[in-house]
Design goal:
alpha/beta, 2 domains, four-stranded mixed β-sheet, two-stranded antiparallel ribbon, 15 helices, about 10% strand
Protein backbone atom coordinates (compact mmCIF):
# COMPACT_ATOMS: atom_id res chain seq x y z
CA UNK A 1 0.00 0.00 0.00
CA UNK A 2 2.86 2.39 0.78
CA UNK A 3 4.23 1.96 -2.73
CA UNK A 4 0.84 2.77 -4.27
CA UNK A 5 0.53 5.92 -2.17
CA UNK A 6 3.87 7.18 -3.45
CA UNK A 7 2.59 6.88 -7.01
CA UNK A 8 -0.55 8.95 -6.45
CA UNK A 9 -0.59 12.40 -8.00
CA UNK A 10 -1.74 15.56 -6.25
CA UNK A 11 -2.36 19.19 -7.17
CA UNK A 12 -1.05 20.69 -3.93
CA UNK A 13 1.26 22.27 -3.10
CA UNK A 14 1.17 24.46 -6.19
CA UNK A 15 4.67 24.57 -7.69
CA UNK A 16 5.76 27.34 -10.10
CA UNK A 17 8.93 26.73 -12.11
CA UNK A 18 11.76 28.80 -10.59
CA UNK A 19 12.34 31.86 -12.76
CA UNK A 20 9.07 31.61 -14.73
CA UNK A 21 7.43 35.02 -15.21
CA UNK A 22 3.98 36.02 -16.42
CA UNK A 23 1.25 38.60 -16.10
CA UNK A 24 -1.62 39.43 -18.44
CA UNK A 25 -1.07 42.76 -20.22
CA UNK A 26 -4.16 42.35 -22.40
CA UNK A 27 -2.31 42.04 -25.70
CA UNK A 28 -5.38 40.17 -26.99
CA UNK A 29 -3.60 37.52 -29.03
CA UNK A 30 -5.21 34.57 -27.26
CA UNK A 31 -8.65 35.88 -28.32
CA UNK A 32 -7.85 35.71 -32.05
CA UNK A 33 -7.27 32.97 -34.60
CA UNK A 34 -4.22 31.36 -32.97
CA UNK A 35 -6.59 28.47 -32.23
CA UNK A 36 -10.24 27.67 -31.98
CA UNK A 37 -11.67 29.65 -29.06
CA UNK A 38 -12.83 26.79 -26.91
CA UNK A 39 -13.89 24.08 -26.47
CA UNK A 40 -16.89 24.92 -24.32
CA UNK A 41 -19.14 22.73 -22.23
CA UNK A 42 -22.86 22.82 -22.93
CA UNK A 43 -23.28 24.76 -19.69
CA UNK A 44 -20.73 27.37 -20.84
CA UNK A 45 -22.49 27.66 -24.21
CA UNK A 46 -25.72 28.48 -22.37
CA UNK A 47 -23.99 31.02 -20.14
CA UNK A 48 -22.34 32.78 -23.10
CA UNK A 49 -25.60 32.81 -25.07
CA UNK A 50 -27.35 34.49 -22.17
CA UNK A 51 -24.82 37.33 -22.51
CA UNK A 52 -25.06 37.43 -26.32
CA UNK A 53 -27.27 35.01 -28.23
CA UNK A 54 -24.94 34.61 -31.22
CA UNK A 55 -21.76 34.14 -29.20
CA UNK A 56 -21.31 30.37 -29.14
CA UNK A 57 -22.37 27.13 -30.80
CA UNK A 58 -21.29 23.92 -32.49
CA UNK A 59 -18.26 24.27 -34.78
CA UNK A 60 -17.94 21.63 -37.50
CA UNK A 61 -14.24 22.40 -38.12
CA UNK A 62 -13.34 21.67 -34.50
CA UNK A 63 -16.11 19.10 -33.93
CA UNK A 64 -16.97 20.76 -30.62
CA UNK A 65 -18.75 23.71 -29.02
CA UNK A 66 -16.75 26.92 -29.49
CA UNK A 67 -17.04 30.68 -29.12
CA UNK A 68 -17.88 32.36 -32.40
CA UNK A 69 -15.55 34.86 -34.08
CA UNK A 70 -16.11 38.23 -35.72
CA UNK A 71 -15.13 39.08 -39.28
CA UNK A 72 -11.52 39.83 -38.27
CA UNK A 73 -11.06 36.40 -36.71
CA UNK A 74 -11.25 37.67 -33.13
CA UNK A 75 -13.67 36.45 -30.49
CA UNK A 76 -17.07 38.14 -30.59
CA UNK A 77 -16.44 39.37 -27.03
CA UNK A 78 -13.07 40.99 -27.89
CA UNK A 79 -13.33 44.78 -27.63
CA UNK A 80 -11.39 47.35 -29.66
CA UNK A 81 -8.93 47.89 -26.78
CA UNK A 82 -8.16 44.13 -26.87
CA UNK A 83 -9.96 43.47 -23.58
CA UNK A 84 -12.64 40.83 -23.07
CA UNK A 85 -16.09 42.38 -22.59
CA UNK A 86 -17.21 39.43 -20.43
CA UNK A 87 -14.23 39.94 -18.12
CA UNK A 88 -14.68 43.73 -18.08
CA UNK A 89 -18.40 43.65 -17.32
CA UNK A 90 -18.86 40.49 -15.23
CA UNK A 91 -15.42 39.57 -13.93
CA UNK A 92 -12.95 36.76 -14.78
CA UNK A 93 -15.08 34.08 -13.10
CA UNK A 94 -17.78 34.60 -15.77
CA UNK A 95 -15.47 33.50 -18.60
CA UNK A 96 -15.34 29.91 -19.90
CA UNK A 97 -12.76 27.72 -18.21
CA UNK A 98 -10.38 27.67 -21.19
CA UNK A 99 -10.37 31.46 -21.43
CA UNK A 100 -9.81 31.83 -17.70
CA UNK A 101 -6.88 29.39 -17.68
CA UNK A 102 -4.88 30.31 -20.80
CA UNK A 103 -1.87 30.44 -20.92
CA UNK A 104 -1.71 28.74 -17.52
CA UNK A 105 -1.97 25.04 -16.84
CA UNK A 106 -1.45 22.47 -14.11
CA UNK A 107 0.36 19.13 -14.14
CA UNK A 108 -0.38 16.91 -11.12
CA UNK A 109 2.63 14.89 -9.91
CA UNK A 110 3.42 12.79 -6.82
CA UNK A 111 5.12 15.88 -5.34
CA UNK A 112 2.45 18.50 -6.09
CA UNK A 113 0.86 20.51 -8.90
CA UNK A 114 3.25 22.08 -11.37
CA UNK A 115 2.05 25.45 -12.63
CA UNK A 116 2.75 25.47 -16.37
CA UNK A 117 2.56 28.17 -19.03
CA UNK A 118 2.09 28.11 -22.77
CA UNK A 119 4.21 30.56 -24.75
CA UNK A 120 1.61 31.27 -27.44
CA UNK A 121 1.18 34.68 -25.84
CA UNK A 122 3.43 37.79 -25.89
CA UNK A 123 2.34 38.48 -22.30
CA UNK A 124 4.35 35.37 -21.43
CA UNK A 125 7.38 36.08 -23.63
CA UNK A 126 7.89 39.87 -23.65
CA UNK A 127 8.06 42.72 -21.16
CA UNK A 128 8.79 43.22 -17.49
CA UNK A 129 6.79 40.43 -15.85
CA UNK A 130 6.71 39.36 -12.20
CA UNK A 131 7.65 35.84 -11.14
CA UNK A 132 4.67 33.50 -11.05
CA UNK A 133 3.22 33.10 -7.56
CA UNK A 134 0.72 30.35 -6.68
CA UNK A 135 -1.66 32.76 -4.95
CA UNK A 136 -1.84 34.96 -8.05
CA UNK A 137 -2.68 32.21 -10.54
CA UNK A 138 -4.72 29.82 -8.38
CA UNK A 139 -8.08 31.44 -9.30
CA UNK A 140 -7.31 30.89 -12.99
CA UNK A 141 -6.44 27.20 -12.67
CA UNK A 142 -9.25 26.32 -10.26
CA UNK A 143 -12.80 25.17 -10.89
CA UNK A 144 -14.36 28.47 -9.88
CA UNK A 145 -14.02 27.56 -6.23
CA UNK A 146 -10.88 26.50 -4.40
CA UNK A 147 -10.04 23.23 -6.19
CA UNK A 148 -7.18 23.40 -8.73
CA UNK A 149 -7.92 21.27 -11.80
CA UNK A 150 -5.07 19.31 -13.41
CA UNK A 151 -4.58 19.22 -17.19
CA UNK A 152 -2.52 16.03 -16.88
CA UNK A 153 -1.38 13.59 -14.22
CA UNK A 154 2.14 12.18 -14.42
CA UNK A 155 3.11 9.43 -11.98
CA UNK A 156 6.49 8.41 -13.37
CA UNK A 157 8.93 9.73 -15.95
CA UNK A 158 9.60 7.76 -19.16
CA UNK A 159 13.32 8.58 -19.39
CA UNK A 160 14.29 6.37 -22.32
CA UNK A 161 12.47 3.68 -24.30
CA UNK A 162 13.65 1.15 -21.70
CA UNK A 163 13.98 3.17 -18.49
CA UNK A 164 11.35 4.75 -16.24
CA UNK A 165 12.21 7.03 -13.32
CA UNK A 166 10.40 7.91 -10.13
CA UNK A 167 10.00 11.63 -9.38
CA UNK A 168 12.66 11.46 -6.68
CA UNK A 169 15.06 10.17 -9.36
CA UNK A 170 13.88 12.63 -11.99
CA UNK A 171 13.93 15.89 -10.02
CA UNK A 172 17.75 16.26 -9.62
CA UNK A 173 18.26 15.41 -13.30
CA UNK A 174 15.62 17.93 -14.34
CA UNK A 175 17.05 20.60 -11.98
CA UNK A 176 20.40 20.43 -13.76
CA UNK A 177 18.70 20.94 -17.14
CA UNK A 178 16.63 23.86 -15.85
CA UNK A 179 19.66 25.58 -14.31
CA UNK A 180 21.68 25.20 -17.50
CA UNK A 181 18.79 26.45 -19.63
CA UNK A 182 18.84 29.74 -17.70
CA UNK A 183 22.60 30.18 -18.21
CA UNK A 184 24.40 31.37 -21.35
CA UNK A 185 25.34 27.88 -22.46
CA UNK A 186 24.23 27.01 -26.04
CA UNK A 187 20.79 25.47 -25.88
CA UNK A 188 21.47 22.71 -28.38
CA UNK A 189 24.50 21.66 -26.34
CA UNK A 190 22.28 21.37 -23.25
CA UNK A 191 19.66 19.28 -25.05
CA UNK A 192 22.43 17.01 -26.35
CA UNK A 193 20.24 15.59 -29.10
CA UNK A 194 20.48 15.50 -32.87
CA UNK A 195 17.94 17.66 -34.70
CA UNK A 196 16.14 16.29 -37.76
CA UNK A 197 16.41 12.58 -36.96
CA UNK A 198 15.41 9.96 -39.52
CA UNK A 199 11.65 9.71 -40.04
CA UNK A 200 9.95 6.33 -40.30
CA UNK A 201 7.89 6.17 -43.48
CA UNK A 202 8.51 9.80 -44.43
CA UNK A 203 11.21 12.40 -45.06
CA UNK A 204 11.85 15.96 -43.92
CA UNK A 205 11.52 17.18 -47.49
CA UNK A 206 8.04 15.64 -47.72
CA UNK A 207 7.04 17.09 -44.36
CA UNK A 208 8.32 20.53 -45.37
CA UNK A 209 6.09 20.53 -48.44
CA UNK A 210 3.07 19.37 -46.43
CA UNK A 211 3.58 22.26 -44.04
CA UNK A 212 3.78 24.74 -46.91
CA UNK A 213 0.68 23.22 -48.54
CA UNK A 214 -1.22 23.74 -45.26
CA UNK A 215 -1.57 27.46 -45.99
CA UNK A 216 -5.27 28.21 -45.64
CA UNK A 217 -5.49 31.99 -45.37
CA UNK A 218 -5.26 32.00 -41.56
CA UNK A 219 -2.39 33.23 -39.41
CA UNK A 220 -1.82 29.61 -38.40
CA UNK A 221 -1.34 28.79 -42.07
CA UNK A 222 1.34 31.49 -42.30
CA UNK A 223 3.12 29.97 -39.28
CA UNK A 224 2.98 26.56 -40.95
CA UNK A 225 4.50 28.04 -44.12
CA UNK A 226 7.36 29.56 -42.10
CA UNK A 227 8.15 26.19 -40.55
CA UNK A 228 7.96 24.40 -43.89
CA UNK A 229 10.20 26.97 -45.57
CA UNK A 230 12.70 26.79 -42.72
CA UNK A 231 12.89 23.00 -42.86
CA UNK A 232 13.50 23.22 -46.61
CA UNK A 233 16.18 25.86 -46.15
CA UNK A 234 17.98 23.92 -43.42
CA UNK A 235 17.82 20.66 -45.35
CA UNK A 236 18.75 21.80 -48.86
CA UNK A 237 20.23 25.27 -48.46
CA UNK A 238 17.70 27.18 -50.54
CA UNK A 239 16.72 30.67 -49.36
CA UNK A 240 12.92 31.05 -49.44
CA UNK A 241 10.97 34.27 -49.58
CA UNK A 242 9.45 35.07 -46.17
CA UNK A 243 5.71 34.25 -46.09
CA UNK A 244 4.78 37.23 -43.89
CA UNK A 245 4.64 37.72 -40.13
CA UNK A 246 1.56 36.36 -38.33
CA UNK A 247 -0.09 38.16 -35.40
CA UNK A 248 2.13 41.20 -35.96
CA UNK A 249 -0.30 43.68 -34.35
CA UNK A 250 -0.17 41.89 -30.98
CA UNK A 251 3.62 41.88 -31.05
CA UNK A 252 3.63 45.58 -31.95
CA UNK A 253 1.69 46.19 -28.73
CA UNK A 254 4.03 43.92 -26.78
CA UNK A 255 7.13 45.72 -28.05
CA UNK A 256 5.62 49.13 -27.29
CA UNK A 257 5.22 48.17 -23.62
CA UNK A 258 8.67 46.49 -23.47
CA UNK A 259 11.37 49.20 -23.73
CA UNK A 260 14.06 46.90 -22.31
CA UNK A 261 15.07 44.23 -24.82
CA UNK A 262 16.10 40.70 -23.86
CA UNK A 263 18.36 38.41 -25.82
CA UNK A 264 16.87 35.80 -28.12
CA UNK A 265 18.79 33.20 -26.06
CA UNK A 266 16.86 34.25 -22.95
CA UNK A 267 13.50 33.93 -24.74
CA UNK A 268 14.36 30.52 -26.21
CA UNK A 269 15.86 29.21 -22.95
CA UNK A 270 12.74 30.19 -21.02
CA UNK A 271 10.55 28.46 -23.61
CA UNK A 272 12.53 25.20 -23.62
CA UNK A 273 12.60 25.19 -19.80
CA UNK A 274 8.81 25.40 -19.69
CA UNK A 275 8.52 22.65 -22.31
CA UNK A 276 10.54 20.38 -20.01
CA UNK A 277 8.74 21.51 -16.83
CA UNK A 278 5.24 21.06 -18.27
CA UNK A 279 5.70 17.27 -18.67
CA UNK A 280 3.37 17.30 -21.71
CA UNK A 281 5.91 15.10 -23.45
CA UNK A 282 5.75 12.51 -20.64
CA UNK A 283 2.16 11.63 -21.56
CA UNK A 284 3.18 10.03 -24.87
CA UNK A 285 6.98 10.09 -25.28
CA UNK A 286 10.18 9.48 -23.35
CA UNK A 287 12.70 12.20 -22.48
CA UNK A 288 15.14 11.03 -25.15
CA UNK A 289 12.55 11.65 -27.87
CA UNK A 290 11.43 14.87 -26.18
CA UNK A 291 14.99 16.26 -26.36
CA UNK A 292 15.26 15.26 -30.03
CA UNK A 293 11.93 16.88 -30.86
CA UNK A 294 12.86 20.05 -28.94
CA UNK A 295 16.27 20.21 -30.63
CA UNK A 296 14.52 20.05 -34.00
CA UNK A 297 12.02 22.79 -33.21
CA UNK A 298 14.76 24.91 -31.63
CA UNK A 299 16.93 24.60 -34.75
CA UNK A 300 13.99 25.74 -36.87
CA UNK A 301 13.28 28.56 -34.39
CA UNK A 302 16.85 29.87 -34.50
CA UNK A 303 16.80 29.84 -38.32
CA UNK A 304 13.55 31.84 -38.52
CA UNK A 305 14.70 34.18 -35.73
CA UNK A 306 17.87 34.96 -37.68
CA UNK A 307 15.84 35.85 -40.76
CA UNK A 308 13.50 38.10 -38.77
CA UNK A 309 16.48 39.85 -37.18
CA UNK A 310 18.03 40.35 -40.62
CA UNK A 311 14.80 42.13 -41.62
CA UNK A 312 15.23 44.55 -38.69
CA UNK A 313 13.25 42.90 -35.87
CA UNK A 314 14.49 43.39 -32.31
CA UNK A 315 16.12 40.25 -30.88
CA UNK A 316 13.56 39.45 -28.17
CA UNK A 317 10.61 40.26 -30.38
CA UNK A 318 11.95 38.08 -33.20
CA UNK A 319 12.42 35.20 -30.76
CA UNK A 320 8.97 35.72 -29.21
CA UNK A 321 7.30 35.70 -32.64
CA UNK A 322 9.16 32.50 -33.51
CA UNK A 323 8.26 30.78 -30.22
CA UNK A 324 4.64 31.63 -30.98
CA UNK A 325 4.92 29.93 -34.37
CA UNK A 326 6.82 26.87 -33.16
CA UNK A 327 4.58 26.28 -30.16
CA UNK A 328 1.31 26.54 -32.06
CA UNK A 329 2.65 24.35 -34.87
CA UNK A 330 4.03 21.96 -32.23
CA UNK A 331 0.51 21.58 -30.79
CA UNK A 332 -0.97 20.70 -34.19
CA UNK A 333 -1.80 17.31 -35.67
CA UNK A 334 0.79 18.05 -38.36
CA UNK A 335 3.64 18.07 -35.84
CA UNK A 336 2.23 15.12 -33.88
CA UNK A 337 2.57 13.11 -37.10
CA UNK A 338 6.19 14.21 -37.38
CA UNK A 339 6.96 13.22 -33.76
CA UNK A 340 5.37 9.83 -34.27
CA UNK A 341 7.79 9.24 -37.17
CA UNK A 342 10.95 10.39 -35.37
CA UNK A 343 13.71 7.89 -34.66
CA UNK A 344 16.07 9.47 -32.12
CA UNK A 345 19.71 8.51 -32.56
Amino acid sequence: MAGNKKKKTKVRPLLPRPGARYTCFGDGLCCTDIHGIGPLTKKEVGEMRRIYRGSAGWNDDHDDYMLNTAADGGCVFLMSDQRCSVHAQLGPEAKPDGCRRFPLGLAATPLGGRITTDHRCPCRTMGDRPEIRPEDVEPSISDGGSRPIADRRIKKIPFTAREELSFSEWEPIEAKYLNRLQSREPLLKILDAKAFPALRGSSWEKQAQEFIDARDGTQFGVAMAWVGDSIGSLRNGRSPRPPGRPWVAAFDRAQARSPKARTSRAVFGDWVADEVWSLKWAEDYDFALARTELATRLTIAEDICGRLRDSGARADRAAAEVVMMLEIVGESDFWTEVKDCMRPS
